[in-house]
Design goal:
Layout lengths: L1 H9 L6 H14 L1 H16 L7 H10 L14 H4 L1 H23 L6 H6 L5 H31 L12 H17 L3 H29 L4
Helix pairs in contact: 2-6, 6-8, 8-9, 8-10
Length: 219
């Protein structure tokens, strides 16, 4: 939707890296009022000392104790950086995709209509591999912040003075305790889960988008 709004008002169908990043960050921030409390609730269910309480009882306890609703937005400052994750992912995908499609159009033997239509989209394997690369780059770029956010939400860390830490303090504490290895602890499962899901999503998006444009006569 944001991309369509930008295209409508600017009249430019080509978006540069900076515009892609900005729109990606805006899209990520738009859903935070709903998804961040759910994320905090899920983290408490998975990592908290909840005894035999069920999910609904945990939610009621979170709302009635501590900071209440404000506590559901712990770690929101981290999203000033974490919003870059999907933005970087889609920017890398779209920018490299544009380069690949341009090379396809310049390849020899591309005069037929069918051939031109095929060159307006990535193949399934190309979209999958490019999606893997894009997700890997975005995950590595923001993983220390992501890990610090989860630790803050689960309240497993404290600063040296015993005060409740913020995201930068958590990152500094992780680095002082174990260096870069501590900051990137657990990145393997995150990459395994995220890379394949993102690659499949982007591959399906690419093929569905092409099918829709073809049915509408745009290609």
């Amino acid at each position: 939707a944001l991309k369509n709004v930008f295209t409508h008002f600017s009249g430019n169908h080509k978006m540069g890296t900076a515009v892609n990043l900005i729109l990606g960050c805006m899209a990520e921030w738009a859903h935070l009022p709903i998804t961040l409390p759910l994320d905090c609730w899920t983290t408490q269910i998975q990592t908290g000392d909840n005894g035999s309480r069920g999910p609904l009882a945990i939610l009621m306890a979170m709302l009635s104790q501590g900071d209440g609703i404000r506590g559901m937005y712990k770690g929101i400052q981290a999203y000033t950086v974490l919003c870059l994750k999907p933005a970087i992912q889609y920017t890398v995908f779209e920018q490299v995709k544009g380069i690949l499609l341009a090379r396809k159009r310049l390849s020899r033997g591309s005069t037929s209509s069918t051939r031109r239509n095929q060159q307006d989209t990535l193949s399934a394997s190309e979209a999958f591999l490019l999606g893997m690369v894009a997700r890997t780059i975005s995950t590595v770029a923001v993983f220390p912040y992501l890990r610090a956010k989860v630790m803050l939400q689960s309240q497993k860390g404290t600063t040296n003075g015993g005060a409740k830490p913020n995201i930068p303090a958590m990152i500094l504490e992780m680095y002082s305790n174990g260096g870069m290895a501590e900051c990137f602890q657990g990145i393997g499962p995150e990459l395994t889960r995220g890379v394949f899901s993102a690659a499949l999503m982007l591959m399906c998006k690419e093929k569905i988008s092409f099918a829709v444009r073809k049915s509408l006569g745009d290609v």
